[in-house]
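Box 3.1 A note on notation
Throughout this textbook, protein chains are presented in two layers. The first layer is the amino acid sequence; the second is a token string describing backbone geometry. Keep the layers aligned when reading.
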Amino acid sequence: VPAEGGKVKVRVDGKEIAAAPGALAGFEINTPRPDFPGLSLKITDLKMKPDAFDIAAAKPLKALLPLDALGYQDNGLYWYAAELPRRTAPVKYKIRLYSGDGIYVFIDNRIVMTQLETHTGGYEYEFEAPATPNGATLTILYEASGRRNGDAPMWEPRGLAQIYTSTPDGGKEYLSGFKFLPGITGVKNKWFAPSLDDSAWRKTSPGDWKKAAGLKDYDGFVWYRAEFSLPKTPGWEIPIGLKIKASDYALVYVNGKFIGRYWSAGPQETFYMPACWLKFGDKGKNEVAIAVINNGGPGGLMSLEVAPYSDFVARDTQIEVSLE
């Protein structure tokens, strides 16, 4: 505080504190950190519901064009599906994308390959299909999230470009007859909405869903819902985070608002929840909805916690400075 030629008096919340004399008077405020019970929570009461791909809702594609050419410019998740021919031995397929987006590859609803984003050109990957003597259904979950492509041109198209296998004579046999479905059921039907009636959802606790009855062989998305209460913190600004561990990737919503994406590869595990989106005290309970997809192995929401960012707690303080 500029103090040349006078004496400085400083009051903090009505209490006078010492100010060092000089041309610039200095003063220090020591604020003990608060201890508000109820701000740190481990959530174990969950509800869950699988969100499997609905091939009956998919529409035929005339060709594998970029998403923009198909009329889809929004970021999000997109499903592709095709029938694999009958084969008595395993076959290696090449899959080419228009850009470096992430994909999950399923055969008869079991994940056989995952590919996260890449920032190099080419965008061609290989996966092996087992013997399919009766044929099989290939499905691909493609994520166009808007954060891909790194140093690649911004005008680069997105989507599935082609899938083929090499023939004995050195040629290529392309897979055709694709169907297409934008979005996943839970997002389209707003399973993240606070007003959703989830009374029929299965009750569960954090852990591997493959240990639950009927989900031992399930790969894909599973939604979780939970609720928590927060106390009021009068006189304090306390940022609150939602900490999760999941296998393997997740979409995270709080009170109907999308707050981020989670990858088990990290590094982010805690997601900031803006106070304007939360309910405190008698305003009601907060609703969490998390859609988790596995990578072929264990799947599930492994832990869920609410905790303050203790390093960023701030107190609402009234400071009065007078010069005599």
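The first strand starts at residue 8 and ends at 12. The first helix runs from residue 185 to 188.
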